[in-house]
Amino acid sequence: MKYLFPNFLTSELEYRICKSYWETKIEYLLQKSNIINIEQYLNTKFANGQEQFNGNPIVNFYVKSKNKALRIVQDIPETETVEISAWTNKFKTDDLNTTELVISLELTPESEQITYDFIKKWFINDYSASVMEKYIDFVYESIKSLKTNSLTEEIYA
Amino acid sequence: MKHRGRLQAQGENLEASEAWSQNEPPTKKDGLTMLEKLRKKISKSEAKKREKAFIKAHKYIEQASINGGLRHSLCYI
Hints:
The complex is a heterodimer. In chain A, helix 2 (109-124) runs antiparallel to helix 3 (129-156). Chain A has helices at residues 12-32, 109-124, 129-156; strands spanning 38-39, 59-63, 68-74, 84-92, 97-105. Helices cover 41% and strands 20% of the residues of chain A. Chain A has 3 helices and 5 strands; from the N terminus they run H-E-E-E-E-E-H-H. By secondary structure, chain A is α+β, with helices and mostly antiparallel strands. In chain A, strands 1-2-3-5-4 form a 5-stranded mixed β-sheet, with helices on one face. Chain A starts with 11 loop residues before the first helix and ends with a helix. By secondary structure, chain B is of the alpha+beta class. Chain B has 3 helices and 2 strands; from the N terminus they run E-E-H-H-H. Chain B has helices spanning 28-41, 44-49, 51-66; strands at 3-11, 14-22. The longest helix of chain B is centred in the last third of the chain and has 16 residues, at 51-66. The interface between A and B is medium-sized, with 14 and 14 residues.
């Protein structure tokens, strides 16, 4: 399995590059569809300003015009399959009342592509939370069947 | 100013939490005690599934304490 930024939790430099990689690609994807005024809605620093460097979230975005948010949680790569899960979550603080799409993954080229697909459906196609949940289930089933097929091939090989 | 927050364990059919609302911000000791209470609130099997998350949460509280705490009550682990 090819992992992207596999040492992001042990190397601060790799963490920063990884974060910047996500931000650049997601901002480009959204801006291409005229989705602008993107801001962060989560504080990822301790009180002394030190970055938390824990991957949760690796990036976060709030799109005011859609009142929707995105949180990507990146975990240490340790499995030999495509690891990705996603869900929607009501998010409420004193300042913000929105719904976030949470995507949790181990970063590989495959999980990255699925992430962009989810982001497009959430922000660009503007799926509602319930439709998004159904779409996520549909993608899971497709991934599961791909895993099963490759296992079957291994058994018969 | 009141300091409010909660530690929460979530999952399918599971939502347990330990909340605080007090005049002083919770200390590292308070945080670790609440984390332990939260672990005891859920079943052993649920706690086992979340073992990695509990270790992460423990480390997070330790790190927050050496970095001056948090300026916000919401953080994910």
